[in-house]
Amino acid sequence: MPQERKLVKQFDPNGDKRLDSAERKAAREFLAKDTSAGRARRGPGGPRQPSETPPQPGPNVSPADVKSYPEAGLYAPEVLRTLFLEFENADWEKELQDFNNTDVEVPAKLTVDGKTYPNVGVHFRGMSSFGRGAQDRNVRLTWPSTL
Questions:
Q1: Contact status, residue 51 vs residue 133, Cβ threshold 8 Å
Q2: Residue 60 included in any domain
Q3: pTM for the whole thing?
Q4: Count of domains in the chain?
C-alpha cells in the first residue's frame, strides 16, 4: 500500500497548514508532471479501468428539503442527517481525485442542521474503494476547530 504523499509543507508558503486555491493549483500541476505520482496512483494491474456505467447525479436536494435535528447529538443513533458540501471549484471531484493519497484536503463549506461551517477539509478515504468507481467512494471530513 503506498504511503500518503506529503505535499502541504512543500506548497504552503504562508505556513497555515492548508493549501489555498493558488497553492492547490500549483500542487496539482506538480502532480500532473510528476511521473512517480502517476505510478503511485495505479494499482498492481496497471491503470484503473473506468466503471462500466458512469455515475449519474442524484436528485437535487437543498437544506430546506431535509429535516434538521439541531438538538440531537451529532452521533445520535436515531438520527440520519444530510450533510451538504459546497466546494469553491467547479472541478471539485477531479481535485479530490488528484489529491487522493496525499495530505491535501480540499476546502468546502458544510451545512448541517441549518448551520453552516466554512473551511471544512475534504478528501477521499479508503484505498480499496477508490478504484471501484465514483459511486462507491467515501470521503473524510476534517471539521474546523470552531466546532
A1: yes
A2: no
A3: 0.73
A4: 1
